[in-house]
Amino acid sequence: MADAFGILLRRHRRRLRLTQEALAERAGMSSRSIAEMERSPARGPRPRSLERLAAALGLTGAERDEFVGAGRALFWASRTGGTPGGGPAHGEGTHHESAHGEGPHQEDRGPRGGRPPVRQLPPDLPDFVSRADELALLSSVLDPPAPGLPDVATAGRAPRLAVLSGPPGVGKTALAVHAGHLLGSRFPDGQLYAALRGTGADPADPAEVLAQLLRVLGVAGAALPAGLDARGGLFRERVAGRRMLLVLDDAGGYRQVEPLLPAEDVAVLVTSRLPLTGLPGVTSIDLEPLPGPAAVELLCRVAGGARVRGEPAAAAELVAACGGLPLAVRIVGARLAARPHWTVETLNLRLADERRRLDELSHGDLAVRPGLHLAHQGLTPVAARAFALLGELDMPSFPEWTAAAFLGAEPGPGAAVVEELLDARLLESIGPDQAGQPRYRFHEVTRLYARERRQAEIGAADWAEALARAARGWLALARRAQERLHCLRLHLDDAAVAVEVTDPRVGELAAARPVEWFEAEREALAAIGAACAEAGLAALARCLAGCCADFHGLRGYYDDWRRATRTARAACRRSGDRAGEAAMLRGLGTCLGELDDLDEAVAALDEALRLSDEVGDRAGAALVSKEIGFMLGLTGRLDQAEAELRGAIDRLGQAGLPLAKAVALTSLGFVLRQRGDTATAVRVVRSALDIARSCGDLFTEAYVLRGLAGALLARGRAGESERAARRAATLFDRVGDPIGTAQSLRALGEALALPREPGEAEGPERSERTGEGAGARRLAEAEKALAEAAAIFRERGHSWGLALTELSLGEIEARHGQPEAAARLRRSLRHWVREQVPALRARTLVALAVAAGHDGDPAARDLLTEAYELYAALGSPAARDLAARLGLPAPPG
Prior knowledge:
By secondary structure, the protein is mainly alpha-helical. Helices cover 64% and strands 5% of the residues. The radius of gyration is 39 Å and the shape is elongated.
């Protein structure tokens, strides 16, 4: 043993080309000590000196383990009956120890009586996965002081203390035990373990825990002091100077932990649901659920790798249903292992029903529900009620004021309840949202338990009353935010439905930062609206959907818009609210138009018009007619569109809705230019612009300017069109409307791509726009604007806008004979055929004919003929132009 250690020490020193004196200086020891340890026979160094030597030699990994193991074995052999080779017996005290710079010791650093070090940790988990970052941090916190420091530097040092916190089932104990085993060699004097049962019904008494630890350390029962303070003092005395690890598992709070904290060299690792940040010098590590790949790896280790990896999609779905909670993943893995005939998908199907999922998350003695039940039992009645109410909603997250709204309480008590749920680890804080509000969420499994508690403890009527309070709070805030939005006003909300602001400070925030507030609450508003519809609160469901529709249209959240209005419409229908149903159908029709489902859009709007007339809602009927006229204009049914829009314009003026009238006038301008009456189109749209500016509404001004750009371009005034489109894009960007911005960029690109008429470019930009190379610069800018528009449409999933932008780009490329034009135009054509939009289909065919003409393709005439037939069927003036090009008789009319 002595030979082995001496040889290792000499080999590593020589490998580094160090003299004994140089190594001694590095390790903070005497050169005499180094010489004696290299001689054979020799005594081993004391543990602190051994660590200094390993560090000075730069040993890591297996080399370090071999070196430390040999030195430690030699040291303990010399203390339990004399050193190998006839060294002095245990307790004699030698000059060798003094030479190491540590001085004679009062008692051994090993357990009393020569017993081996205490190793109390539970067995390590053979299938432990992940947590590399946490383990690295624990290693840096718990590792003893760096070798080479003089004793005075470590005198009176506070214990190295780390706390692992987190919700039930997240793997706190597993990580603590794994870390203890991984770092075992760092604590040669032993590892102590105590289960505090802090979250159970019978938490451990710190005095009893100290008695248990002292017995392990060799204190006989009769010698145990009677009081907590006396036991704590004796415990600190017994472990002082020893390099040990103390693991305190499942602490309920500070009072359980503080009496057990040792001093000096002992490292302490605590697990608790609370972070215990008030402990002196603590490093708190809050554990998150496992990420998907790590959770799948754990599932593989428990259930079998080949089996799980054979169903990768099902495995990912299974761990997602467990929310990445290690306990839940271990349970489903154990169930799969116990049932070889099950596939992973079989278990997925069993977990699909949320009402039974907690029942499925159990196997033998392993279960998720008991830990949640214990945490729930510790809540005050008001916090338990808030837990159940908040958990019933399928909301990804919610702000603090929500608890007070559900409880019907003031903001202060509501905030206290949130803090209690956080302390119980039944709720998680996720930090501030876009609007600056603190935000909270349930873990998926915890939410399932909360829903169980709601169904067991709170009746349907009580639930509906609490839900209505919360919904009125959200609606009040949504109205505050909606009033400050610059967007298309759909007028779907019903101001007669009363609301109440739970916390005035949040109301001010919603008004000050409306877009950010809506973004933050987008998913929560969807959840509260759906819950209201399900609970029979149709008026609240309808108002929430209607109030949010303006925001959804502004930001292009068409799926949210469609889902909310459909759900609210069904609720209104069940409750017999015909006016509400009409409003929701109007909103749905507008949304479907944005989603290119024009036939369904017109059908919904026709039904909305019928219901509006039935209930005598003249303003609602006028708004429906405006939308119907717009849809008809897009599909090329120009006569019907013009008649519908002119009627809507008159009625909107009578109803006192000037901004809606301006939008309708802009749509009428679009129809008129499609009919070839471009002069009237420009005049009509300019009248709309006057209305928008007189109202000071930036969104409507931007909307009308975009329409004016199209009318001016059709009139052949490309320079004016360009200026209108630029201004529209700037305003849309200012109000936060990405789709409006993209549509304006598309109009700008079309205007830039067309040549200027003589005298069009006026003012300081004339020379730049009309000088040499101006056409090429405008063309490059046009392509850039159109590319930006396409990128926005693509990102937002706006297929109509993307197809129209592809058409505009394709027309430019076709005019200039670029080879990519045909492929781009055919992509656009497929969209117009699929969506049954004959006017744009004909326009695309004309552009394809231009591209084919550049290539000398005889199919160009066939393409023009097909376009002519489409235009003629629509009664479009474009048919006359094509007839002249084809040498055909002019169409009638």
